[in-house]
């Protein structure tokens, strides 16, 4: 746990799930820079009158640092991550702030009707930023204060051009502690600089014949999903090797992304029961759309859950888990999410149930699976990727 000190107060903040061994903070220099600017107009413009500003919306606040600091002004947080919502709720509670001080919305929810101050933490995905700016643009007005923030490595010429195209004239601040601010002035509708373009998201494509059990499937990707217009190579390799003769099993697509893996199983086995889970609201919306685009009958045999991995699933309730785990948390490289997914999988698998994982070979997940399950088998491999299988043994003691 670390303490963030800002002009708006000092707060102890954590990421979610909270882990005392985690050395990553719940904020960075970009959050600090943005909060200093709101108070003093650091280096660019005068301070923002938050008390009289009206509706404040915060897009992309990663762990709730911004809305916790600004809770006195009753901001609305808009995020794609259920983990962000969980972290925000925990950080607000720790700060003694009433939960209703901050309105929590997802990227799939309707935005506030009118937005007077829009604060944007630039996301890793330019596509997600594009989609959200298009969604929010009709709710801005000529007087809306728009300030973005990100680390220098996150803000590119394409980022600035996107703000300019969708909202209006845009410029940046000087860098401080490797962070930068973006200032954007919404253009009046119908004037040069006001976008007449239409949000291009979601996008749809068909899996080609080299897509294994996914060949011929229609895939729907909302903005922010990895590799939006085609199968990424890891998923392709997984689809070429996953079990499809599941004999009516209950199958969990864990970290489902666009849901193409679970949908491939559902199409191959009409009796299978599917559960799609992801921490991303955009991902689960994509998985639902992909499933519905390919499965005409028996749609009630699929469940779609947004949350922390297997949260909401009873222990021993799943026969097969399919997992393509991430190894990034925003800009940080980490295996913590994958290892947590493996432990969660063991919990929800019935005795004799199986976890199948596709991963970059260099991640070395086979050693973690052996430690957790007592076994690990290489199902398929190629120079970059490997598909691993682990079985939950009935009498193996639960690891500490």
Structural summary, described in words:
Helices cover 26% and strands 25% of the residues. The protein is of the alpha/beta class and 400 residues long. The radius of gyration is 22 Å and the shape is globular. The model has no long low-confidence stretch (mean pLDDT 92).
Which tags fit this structure?
400 residues; alpha/beta; 7-stranded mixed β-sheet; 10 helices; 20 strands
Outline of this structure?
The protein has 400 residues and is α/β, with parallel strands linked by helices. The chain has helices spanning 29-40, 65-69, 82-94, 126-136, 157-166, 233-239, 260-268, 281-294, 336-348, 365-373; strands at 2-6, 9-13, 56-59, 76-79, 103-106, 117-121, 145-151, 170-172, 179-184, 203-206, 218-221, 250-254, 273-278, 302-306, 318-323, 328-329, 332-333, 349-360, 377-381, 385-391. A hairpin with a 2-residue loop joins strand 1 (2-6) and strand 2.
Describe the secondary structure blueprint for this structure.
Layout (H helix, E strand, L loop, with lengths): L1 E5 L2 E5 L15 H12 L15 E4 L5 H5 L6 E4 L2 H13 L8 E4 L10 E5 L4 H11 L8 E7 L5 H10 L3 E3 L6 E6 L18 E4 L11 E4 L11 H7 L10 E5 L5 H9 L4 E6 L2 H14 L7 E5 L11 E6 L4 E2 L2 E2 L2 H13 E12 L4 H9 L3 E5 L3 E7 L9
Parallel strand pairs: 3-4, 3-6, 4-5, 6-7, 12-13, 12-15, 13-14, 15-18
Antiparallel strand pairs: 1-2, 7-9, 8-9, 10-11, 16-17, 18-20, 19-20
